[in-house]
Amino acid sequence: MRKGSKQFETEAIRTQMERSQNLEHSSPIYMTSSFVFEDAEDMRASFAEEKERNIYSRYSNPNNNELIEKVCKMEGAENGFAYASGMAAVFSTLAALLDAGDHVISSKSIFGSTHTLFTNFFPKWNISTSYFDVDDLDSIEGMIQPNTKIIYAESPTNPGVDVLDLEALGNIAKKHGLIFIIDNCFATPYLQQPIKFGADLVIHSGTKLMDGQGRVLAGITVGSGELMDKVYRFSRITGPALSPFNAWVLSRSLETLAIRVDRHCENALKLATFLEGHDKIEWVKYPFLKSHPMHEIAKKQMKAGGCVVAFEVKGGLDAGRKFFDSIELLSLSANLGDSRSIVTHPASTTHSKLTTEERLAVGISDGMVRVSVGLEHIDDIIADVEQALG
Length: 390
Ligand SMILES: Cc1ncc(COP(=O)(O)O)c(C=O)c1O
Prior knowledge:
Layout: H1 8-14, H2 40-47, H3 62-75, E1 79-83, H4 86-97, E2 103-107, H5 112-121, E3 128-132, H6 140-143, E4 148-154, H7 166-175, E5 179-183, H8 188-191, E6 201-205, E7 219-223, H9 225-238, H10 244-254, H11 257-276, E8 281-285, H12 295-301, E9 308-313, H13 316-326, E10 331-332, E11 342-344, H14 356-361, E12 368-372, H15 378-389
Parallel strand pairs: 2-3, 2-4, 4-5, 5-6, 10-11
Antiparallel strand pairs: 1-7, 6-7, 8-9, 9-12, 11-12
Helix pairs in contact: 3-10, 4-9, 13-15
């Protein structure tokens, strides 16, 4: 926690915009596209950035500002920008910082759309990417070229819940003067604060645990003031800003982030433990299971293991399909971090744009199941999974 700041839960609740003349207790919603000026001089000075004030909601808005300030406090960051989706945050952040001809070093295990961005779209601007294995950080230094600018990773990863040593990555980035960016969506700032381990920028899909109830799409990037200034200037021109309504929803959601995530993690660990002992399961992965290959690192950098459990049903694709068709309570959906538990088949959904070889290289087998463990009673979650396996 930063000097002078309050505890995480308190900041999550008490970080709030200034009250209006109505003295409302909960923040109001500023559904306005623009803001008015007192006079010609006020208008000139505002556009000349001699004053810090809201001009136009593509640039800033009181609800977005409240959300950004809150997430900055949670992550220990200096500044941020709120986006219409997690992918808008990923794309805008990278596009703001990369020039034509630059090179990125990325973890192989990243969200499918981010992978597609690196492999299919950035080459249009002559931006290339080299990939490292999550368990081979030693290979990174050998990939550095004179035009390398960014090291990019997620931890835990989607969908394989692999864990990367953030401190080791931070040290490599620092040694070589590279920008270190972490997608912290699976952990949330409640479980893990990558800036403490050397990250320069932290990206979130707010659509997941931050909202926690599957209502809004949102994204946010926070980090060093210097880098965020570049990201802000790009983002305010290109127009990916979050709607004030969604910012308001998300800011209210963050008030309960800590207690929600505690329960998600408690339920997920119980489900993972149940699966680990089950004779119809090939393997199960969860960062806070002792059997997870990076359990010690997970314990070092995370408060608990998160809401996602990955496993494979014995019997391959057919057995996996039977499992999905037998599920009754859990939802078959592509989202995660919802109060409702969700089962997903990554190979045919979130990571279907990758080739089979690319999927296998990051541990996504055809029979892999990803469960986002929700907030229903754990006995009911386990009972549904058990009957579907049966
Ligand atoms: C790790 C990770 N990053 C980014 C995203 C993209 O977020 P959004 O769907 O809000 O664009 C996702 C979505 O699943 C994700 O899991």
